[in-house]
Structures are given as structure tokens and as C-alpha cells.
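Final report, closing paragraph on structural work. Over the funding period we assembled a curated collection of sequence-structure pairs, and we close with a single example.
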Amino acid sequence: MSAADETALDSELEELHDNRSVSAKVWEACKRMPLGAFGAIVVILMIMAAILAPILSPYDPELNNFEAMLVPPSLEYLLGTDQFGRDQFTRIIYGAQTALFVGFACAIIGASVGLVLGVMSAFFGGTFDLIFQRVMDVFLAFPLIILALAVVATFGTEGVLFGTPYENVIIAITIPFVPRCARVVRSNALSIREIPYVDAARALGFSNARIILRHMLPNVMAPFLIMLTAFVGQAILLEASLSYLGMGVQEPTPAWGLMLQGGAEEYAESAPWVPIFPGLAITVAVFGFNLFGDAVRDILDPKLRQQ
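Its predicted structure, as stored:
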């Protein structure tokens, strides 16, 4: 056994005999990856703010108050009001609900569809894999925002199935995610397909569905989870971009991109709090999810764990 193999075996044995409490392990991980811990804190605070939005603010996010238009930040209005007299703090908190709902929905659906398609492409190979990869190449040739805009322009901003304000936005953002996840998962599934236990499963007469679900999918979960966490931040940014361009969530639904659309240019000098705070919310949220995603990648990638 080589020295590298012995070192890897020792580390695995240490993990098996590690009887420390969960809190101690979490604290050690936070010290080892402080940026990832910061990202996790941002994600947790954002989720808590979205859940507790009705408690944290007494104002209605959609109620116009024309007697309090463009009021600067104060004790009554912590982040000021917009051009319609709506409380900025309230709309940012409720906007977190929109961002998280769209972000998680797009990430979960897009990554899950990409996971299944990527594993199927690697497993069947041949003509199916060739055609599938060329189709994925077509989708990957377009930038995320351009492809999302094309989908929204095709279906419109109203929901095509249920008429919900988020439906077409989720479809538009999910479609570009599928080929990106499928390509990463396929590259990992190709190596797993050649492992002897997959050949043994075929020799035992197991169906293709059982081999894919029981033997291949569980072994590509690490790249799937990494892509999933990365997609949330990208989806939040794409949703804000589409809303800012008027092709995403529509008024009066509270959304960070809509808040920027209404005040980014016209009130940048006269009422700077109107565009600044929604922009900061988008920046912090995307930055936090990206840091958290990097930490998840470092934890799940065995090559990075050994460094």
C-alpha cells in the first residue's frame, strides 16, 4: 500500500471513530471555512426573514400611501419609502419570499431534471448520448439571461398552466439550468458506468431503471448537490434581472428587481435609498449563496478534502 493510500485510510478511520458532538463538528467546520460559514448565516437569516415577514413588519407590502412618498429612512420607516409610499423594509423582506421561492424552485427542478437526463445519457450512450449532447450544446450556446428572455418572450409573463405570477419566470430560469447540470452529472456518471458492480447488476438481469436508480444516481449526488446550491444564487440574480427588465414578476408583487426598476434611475440622486437597499439585498443574497455553495463543494469533493 502506498503512502497516499495509507494517509487516506487513516483519515477515513479517524472519521469513523470521531465521537464529537454535532455542534463541535459544526464549529470546527466554521473555523476551517469562515467564508462558507458567513454564507450559511446569510442563507439562514434570509430564510428566517422570509418566514417571519408578517411579524417583522406591520405594513402591507402592496399598500400605497401617497402621504408618505419618498420618505427617507427613519424610525417609522427603517429603509424609507418608495415613490408610491410603500415601506422599503417591508417590501425587501417580502421580496425575500419571492427570491427564495423562485430560487429554490428553479434550482431543484432544473438540477433534478439535469440529474436524470445526465445519468441516462451516460448509461445508454451510443446514438442517444450523441443526440442528447448535441441538443445540450445548442442550449449551452446561449447565455443564461438570453435564453431566459427568449422563453419569457415566447410564453409571456402570465402563467401558462396555473396563472400564477411566478410560473413563467420559473420555467424561463429552469430551462437554462438543465443542460448545465446534465453535462456535469454525465461526466461523473460515465466513470461510474464502467465500475464492475454496474456490470454485475447487468449480469444479474436487473432492469435499466433499477441500475440507474439504485446504482448510478446515488453515486452522482455530490456534483448534483454542488450544482443545486450554485443554481439558487444564479436563479435569484436571474429573477431580479428579468423583473428589472419588466419580463419577470409583475407589480404589485414585492420583488427586488421590481424595486430597482422603479427607482434605479429616476431616484438615484433625489432619493438614493430607493435603489440602494434592493441592490444591497440582491448582492448580499447572491454572495451568501455563492459562498455557501463553494463550502458545500469543498465538503463534498473528495479531491478537495484531501488537500
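Residues 30-55+85-305 form a domain with the MetI-like fold fold (CATH 1.10.3720.10). The two ends are 20 Å apart (CA to CA). We thank the funder for supporting this effort.
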